[in-house]
Amino acid sequence: MVESDGVQEYHKRFGHPTHNDTELFELLTVGIFQAGLSWKASASKLPVFRQVFFNFDIKKVAALNPEDLSIPMNNPDMIHNNRKIKAVIIDARAVLKVQSEFGSFSKYLWSFTDNQPKLVDGALEDQLANNQSFIQNIVKDLKRRGFTFVGPIVTMMFLRAAGIVQSVN
Which residues are recorded as binding Zn(2+) (predicted)? Predict the structure, then answer.
């Protein structure tokens, strides 16, 4: 079975340490849309996400208003979920605030791991996402800063995709 370009690209990038704010926002978006779906279903939509979210230009996405939701919703290839689309917009606004405070979204995220990938036992990942204070602390801080759709599983997958958390074994 031939995988879509989005799936191939996501798979190539997955787990590589990422320090670019636009790429981090892109990976967060894939994570948001992955909730309730397979990672392949979400990653396959990367080209569509780029189209409807202005190539992940954080400022442009943050400037969207509720009436602008018709743009992504009218795209037949888009995952039609208003809550997830709104979450991307809200999270773009939260990223801008974090950038203002920390200098970049990357500096903020990597500060949780002292700028080094955090190694975790891959066999215990699901348990870690739900129980480990490391992930719980990040989730709590993200939510405090206005991020939405960032529960423990989405956050763990996002941090893994960005190479901030890496599995061993």
Answer: 11
What single-letter amino acid sits at 38? S
Three-state SS for 121?
strand
CATH number at residue 94: 1.10.340.30
What's the domain range around 67? 5-168
> Could you read off the pLDDT of 20-41 as tens digits, one per residue?
999 999 999 999 999 888 888 8
Structure tokens belonging to residue 64 = 């969207």
Looking at the structure of the chain, the number of domains it has is 1
What gap in Å lies between CA 8 and CA 130, rounded to an integer?
A: 28
Tell me: is residue 80 an annotated ligand-binding position: no
